[in-house]
Write a structure and sequence with these properties.
Blueprint lengths: L2 H28 L10 H9 L1 H38 L4 H13 L2 H11 L5 H21 L5 H9 L4 H37 L6 H10 L3 H33 L1
Length: about 250
């Protein structure tokens, strides 16, 4: 099976899986197999398409997606910077590893109230998002920086390359596949961190809509917000998967 046919095969299987899931969702909602709290997919789509709800959803989406983007970018930059620091200065690597492990061990839900006290409540969602992304990127980058073989390292040393030149020309390009994989896996983490952060008092956002819908038993609004977040996360995950294939084909 060629790479192109394998990609088409995976795309078809993915489309069939999504279609089957949506069909099951519609059946469960139509026949009330899960009670009144599970509406049909058509009802949720109609609620989202309602012109009177457009302004509400647009404002919430802009706030949430802005927090996701900010947290994602900050998390990537800080994760790559920390991993590069540990690679360039090996003496700092054990300390950085322990610090990242401690940060990851603390539940994000427990950190949200702390961020609300220390910073503006609208900064809590991107901050929680950035922490989750930071861990994923740090682990991926540190693993990728080890991908260069000892043979290539010895060759660069024998040719008189400086540590900086070896890092930029050998170790960093070798780490790109792992880094892009980490960026792909960090996309849903960024969305989760943002939604969790918005649950703790953001002024607007899809997470706030979810909390309000749960408190007021607005089932269509709840499922609409969940569907929007899920669709956006899956779409970005799919796009990053395509980019990942390009990077693996070029650098691996």
């Amino acid at each position: 099976m060629t790479l192109q046919s394998e990609a088409v095969h995976r795309l078809v299987l993915g489309a069939v899986g999504v279609g089957l899931f949506l069909a099951i969702w519609q059946v469960i909602g139509t026949y009330r197999l899960a009670g009144m709290t599970w509406p049909p997919l058509t009802d949720v789509l109609a609620f989202i398409a309602d012109p009177s709800k457009q302004g509400l959803f647009v404002r919430a989406m802009l706030a949430s997606f802005a927090s996701v983007a900010l947290g994602y970018v900050v998390g990537i930059l800080s994760g790559v910077a920390a991993a590069m620091l540990g690679q360039v200065l090996p003496i700092m690597r054990p300390g950085l590893d322990r610090l990242v492990a401690v940060i990851h061990a603390v539940p994000l839900v427990a950190l949200a109230p702390v961020f609300m006290v220390l910073a503006n409540r609208d900064l809590t969602p991107p901050a929680i998002s950035a922490l989750g992304v930071f861990y994923m990127i740090y682990v991926a980058t540190t693993s990728g920086l080890k991908a260069a073989s000892h043979t290539h390292r010895d060759l660069f040393t024998a040719l008189g390359s400086s540590p900086t030149s070896r890092f930029l020309r050998l170790e960093l390009p070798a780490a790109l596949p792992a880094l892009v994989s980490g960026m792909k896996l960090a996309i849903p983490v960024a969305f989760i961190g943002t939604i969790v952060g918005e649950w703790f008092g953001a002024s607007r956002g899809l997470g706030l809509l979810m909390v309000s819908a749960m408190q007021n038993f607005q089932i269509p609004l709840l499922w609409s917000a969940v569907l929007i977040v899920t669709t956006a996360s899956l779409a970005l995950f799919g796009l990053m998967s395509l980019f990942e294939r390009l990077v693996y084909g070029r650098f691996q």
